[in-house]
Automatic annotation (TrEMBL):
The keyword Ribosomal protein does not apply. It comes from Sinimarinibacterium flocculans. It comes from the Bacteria. Belongs to the Mg-chelatase subunits D/I family. ComM subfamily. Residues 289-388 form the MCM C-terminal AAA(+) ATPase domain. The keyword Magnesium does not apply. GO terms for molecular function: ATP binding; DNA binding. This is Magnesium chelatase family protein. Keywords: ATP-binding, Nucleotide-binding. NCBIfam families: YifB family Mg chelatase-like AAA ATPase.
Amino acid sequence: MAQLAMLLSRAQNGLTADLVTVEVHLAPGLPGLNIVGLPEAAVREAKDRVKAAITTCGYRFPVQRITCNLAPADLPKEGSRFDLAIALGILVASEQVPAAPLQAVEVLGELSLSGELRPVPGVLPAALKATQAGRALLVPAACADEAALAPQARVLPAQTLAALCAALHEGGPAAIAASAPKAPAVDEPDLADVRGQPQARRALEIAAAGEHSLLLVGSPGAGKSMLARRLPGILPPLTAEESLEVAAVASIAHGGFDAADWGRRPFRAPHHTASGVALVGGGGQPRPGEITLAHRGVLFLDELPEYERRSLEVLREPLESGRITVSRAARQAEFPARFQLVAAMNPCPCGWLGDPSGKCRCTPDQVQRYRGRISGPLLDRIDLQLFVPRVDAAQLADRTATAESSTTVRERVIAARSRQLDRQGVPNAQLHGKALERHAAPDDTAAALLQTALARHLLTARSYHRCLRVARTLADLDNSERTGAQHAAEALRYREMDRTPV
């Protein structure tokens, strides 16, 4: 007599987790296990892991024709995340474990040949979806802390298949409560380590306060990388919702999320040989790229002109929208990409243009070709562009000089960001359309100054709006209700890429 069991699981699809029904059917016929429902290689190999795990744990593998269907059939299934659901389906269908404790439960987990449960990637997105559906999530014990980050989640951890089956005979494993860990103390590099560079420090503070992108242009050793790596330390703390987004990205990209990193903003610094796919993501089964791994954090591109131009152009859309859609022949996935871009470059091929040492021997034509590696439309999307001079020897040698710490600057940044969120609900860098006109409207003098720059072709329409956003951030740092002429003038000074020394 044919026997049937049905369990629920989740497939990974970008940052979401689609519901999969695991149907196991036992029938007379030639013994074997056949998995259908668009499985890829790792899923098809589950039959060998499942058979070994069941027999190793002391249970009987049915000598019947076993068909396992992963529905819906048109959704690609990948990875080893369905091992545990398939094994439990076989044991339930063969009446070796009760089905009742598995009602309203979703199952994820990889099986070893000994029956041990191994962790799988993408547990947090699955836990969020299971909680929304009002179901508990059964996972390997190694994934329990990650799954428990989902608010109000009911997580059922298990160490081995044998222990899990024993618990099912007694009503099921005990649930652990969902609990988001506390945010870690800020231990980023301190801004107080930076000597001199008052204008660059000011630009870094503005970028942090308004979530603006930043380009630092300067000679080797000017401190561009040092400044960029101190931006995360002055950014406002992540909200609980933002922390969940960052953790969900790490869960699918790194095979799991370490709860010790909860609330920490990511900092990504890919090498300049990175391809466009490495930056935006891709693959036959779409995976997140560097811009998604930097979501809610900082993407630092050092030696910007050394990147392939085609690789840099893929940043244009995410800088505007905060999302990226990766389309392939069989799959399409959308990933978040709300990152802060910080880029650094030399002013010329040798790097010494404009330096007091006079080392530069680059011709104007060589300088223009070097800068031409970065397209105008991409430069237009960078809010703050600043020339960073080298610090002189006297400043480096002065051990008595003190500078503001990251903690002090961060307090001002948090206050300015709070004003923005109270006023308009988003940082100034995300203001668009009528919201920009309503919340960042300059006074008459500031408006006249910006209009003059626009009329003289010093600004495009896009860079005009970006200057408005930067000026509004400067006003927020000054706790000013209106954007004044001094704010507009300072914002215009940060459009200096075309006016660096040639």
